[in-house]
Every structure is written in structure tokens, then in C-alpha cells.
Amino acid sequence: MISLFSNLITLSRLLFKLIRYNIVSPISFFQNYPFIGKLALKTSFLRDRSFDNHNWGERLVYCFIALGPSFIKFGQALATRADIIGGDNALALTQLQDNLTPFSFEQAERIISSDFNCGIENLFSHFEKKPIAAASIAQVHFARLVDGTDVAVKILRPNIEELFERDVKLLFWLAELLERFFPATRRLRLVDVIEVFSTSIKLELDLRMEASAGSELADNFSEDTDFKVPKVYWDYTSQRVLTIEKITGCRPDNRQELKRMNLDPRQLVKKSTRIFFNQVFRDGFFHGDMHPGNVFILEDGRIAPVDFGIMGRLDMATRVFLAKMLIGFLTKDYHSVAKLHFKARYISEDQSVETFAQACRSIGEPILNRPLAEISLANLLSQLFRITKQFEMEIQPQLLLLQKTMLVAEGAGRQLDPTVNIWELAQPMIRDWMVKTQLQKIPLQSLSVELPELINRLPSLFENLEIALENLAKKGIAVEHQKELLNKKKNKKRRRIKRIFFSLVIILMLSGYYVMN
Ligand SMILES: Nc1ncnc2c1ncn2[C@@H]1O[C@H](COP(=O)(O)OP(=O)(O)O)[C@@H](O)[C@H]1O
Ligand SMILES: [Mg+2]
Question: How many angstroms separate the alpha carbon of residue 214 from the centre of ligand 2?
């Protein structure tokens, strides 16, 4: 009963904000439902007119900020889903800043003491009471370990797990409701979107996973003198506390400071491009949140990342596919790009290779005919993912994350030096990597090369099997169709339920509005 009550309060708060920032009524999909239109009209007095001159994407950003931590994170996740909310809105969501009011030092102290079963003074000889950053999931304090090492300590927000659980439950419930009452929304697979979001959030809520990601990245780059991944202090790390080496440097977008440090921006872009492509192709493990706030440039020119909460993984098959696809585009060999998608079974055989090649040309030509410095890899990928949707291809969330990361990396690179282009730099790297990978595949060269590769691919083979089984299950679509015919009869009843539901919603919203004022 209590949870139902809190769900209703959360729901009314959500609906109130959706109206305040005018989020629902401009969605063209709902314009097919006159009832919603009328409802929007009736509630328009709750709308905050001062946001009227902002576009929908910007209003969505304000709305997510007003809704708090879970929704800020959800908005950031949606930023990778241009296929759902459109390219411009996805771009607006990438601006979603994650700054929140900090929680108190006393609360931070309580969390540390409870996780380590001892007083904070037993762990740290000094602890800065004021955090240097406070975001939706955690905040970061500088401190000094008892042995004198300077560290950064990230601490989860108090009760954040419960808050996310409550909000994610509500999002699931809403997505299910939409899919049930508005079958046309099923195409967007909202329940799956929230499933992916919920899984990634659960990982972010365990800082040991972040510590683990940081230490894996450090291992991958242990030989690289240009990339400094901060050391993880495992003895000072728990589910709610992460302690890593403190990094001193400047942000990559601070041009003045870089000039003072006498660092060549061109060299920095070159270095960071090499590092990025090594993460993607060589390791298949990349930092998925490389905005300028998460990167430091050290005095000696080394690049240091922080924040390993969002990482992407690409298996070997996907990396080879990606490399071949990018090279195919670059050489304007659209037919081979198209064939690649079919060979990888990303697109089903009942679609036409020729038509898909034609669609690839339609996105490749306008992008690739520009001067090299203006070509955007991220733009190419986002356009490609848009058309692959039309060909009923499901895009792996990891590739969507890669596309968003590329977008951020390209932007950061362009800011540092607009004359260098990561396309230009990436090309020889991708080719070299391909040559190396192909060489490894020469039969008889050595089984010891092929066998680990096969073992590596086993999980993805199982995954493919799973997909095949799923597809088989989808063949039951005919049965589904029959069911829909039967459902038509029930539609009348549904409409009545819808009306009752929306009336309830109005009552809830109004009560929410009065409670909050
Ligand atoms: N090891 C570190 N050294 C110096 N500053 C750090 C370190 N780790 C984090 N920070 C600072 O704290 C901010 C927030 O940390 P981050 O791990 O990015 O948290 P969030 O996941 O909330 O973005 C970073 O943007 C950076 O300015
Ligand atoms: Mg960060």
C-alpha cells in the first residue's frame, strides 16, 4: 500500500513536470489520439510559458534535470538513442549536465565508516570536507591516505540505490502501459530500452565495477607512455566508495592553460585519436564517457582519463565488421558495405542487398564528398544506424555507445585543433589493425593464435544462437496477428479503461500540483 502510494506520488510528479515543460503534446505520435490532445489542452494552464521559446530537446533537458538523479541518467542514456528521439534531440541531451547539490561531509563520513567498519581517520590522514564535484550518482572528495598518497575518493549518494529502484520501476510500469494501450509504441521497444538502462545503472551503483574497469584499462595501456590511467586503491574501495590516484592537470578544452603548458594541440589530438582507436580496435574495451570533464592533460603532455562508470565492449567479430565497414565507406565501395551487413546477418536475407547499398550511398556521398577535415565518422555512423533501422536491423547498444563516444571525441578534437581530422588519422590505424588481425588468421600459422580467438568468440556464438532462437520464436508472429484480430473486440473496452486511466491521471496531477505548491 505504501509502495503504491509512493508510486502514485512519483507518477504525479513526473506527469506534472512533463506538462510543465510541455513534453508530451508536441509528440506527433500522440496527435493521432484526440483524447490526449484534449487532455493536453485542459492541462495547459500548468505549462511554464517561459520555456516556450526553447525547442523540444532543450525542454526535455530541463525536465530531466527537474526530475532528479535517475532521470538525468536516463536522459544521458537516451542521448544515444537518436533512433527514438531524433538526431537533434539526442544532441541536445548530450548537453545534459550532471551537476547536483552535494550531500554533507557527515553523510560521506558515515558511508565510509560503515563500509570499512572503522573511523575515517584510520584510512585518511586528510580528507577535504568540500567535494570537488557532485553529480547524480556520486560525489568526489580529494584526500590523503595514511601513507601520504594523494587520492580522489568517489562516494555514492546516500540512499541512491533505493531512489533508482523506485524510479526505474515506475519507468518500466509506464513503458509497459504504453506498449499495452498504444500498440504503435511497441516498435520503439521502450521496455527493452529501460531494461538496458536499468542494467547499466545497476553496474554504476557498484563502485567496485568502476574500479575494475579502471584497472583493466590501466593494464591495457601499461606500456603506453602517453596515456596515464589513475591507479585504483583496492584496500580503500568498496561498493559505495572508490579511491583512485589523484590526477593533477588541466581540462583539454582549457586552451589558455594548454598554451601556458607549452603543449601542441595538434599532437594532443593525434595522441588521443591513437589512444581511442587502440581502445576500440586493439582492446575492444573503450571509455564510454570521454567528455572534457573526464579527461586531464598533464604537464608532461600525457592524457589521463577519470570516471570509468560507463565503458563499452566490442567482441572481435564486431570490431572486424566495424573496421571493414568504415574502410568500405571510405573507399566508397557501398556494395561491399551492404554485403558486409548481410554476411554478418545484421540484416535478414529477405531484404535486398542492392537497395541497402543504394541507401548506404545516400548517406555516404553527402558526408564523404566534403573536405577531409569536415568528415564526421560519428555522423556517418549515426546516419547508418538510422537507415539500418529501416531495414529492420537491431543495433547493438555497444555500437550506439561507440557512436556517441565518437561524437564527443570528434567534438573535443575539433575544439583543440579544427584543422586535424580524426578520420584522416584513424584510417591508417584501422588498416594496420586489419592487416594484423588478418595475419593472425592465416591458417597453420599457429593454432595457439586461432584457438584463443575461437574461445573468445564462443560467447558471441552462443549469443548468435540465442538470437536465432529468438527469431524462430518471432516466427510465431502469425499467431500474434491472430491474437490482434481477437484483440480488436477488446479495443472498445480498452478505450473505456483508457478514459478512466487518464481521468485518474488528471486527478493525480492536480493533487501533485497542489501538494507541491
Ligand atoms: N582521480 C582524480 N583526480 C582528480 N580529479 C578527479 C579524479 N577523479 C575524479 N575527479 C574529478 O571529479 C569529477 C567527478 O568525477 P567522476 O568520476 O567523473 O564522477 P561522475 O561519475 O559523477 O561524473 C571529475 O570530472 C574530475 O574533475
Ligand atoms: Mg564524470
Answer: 13
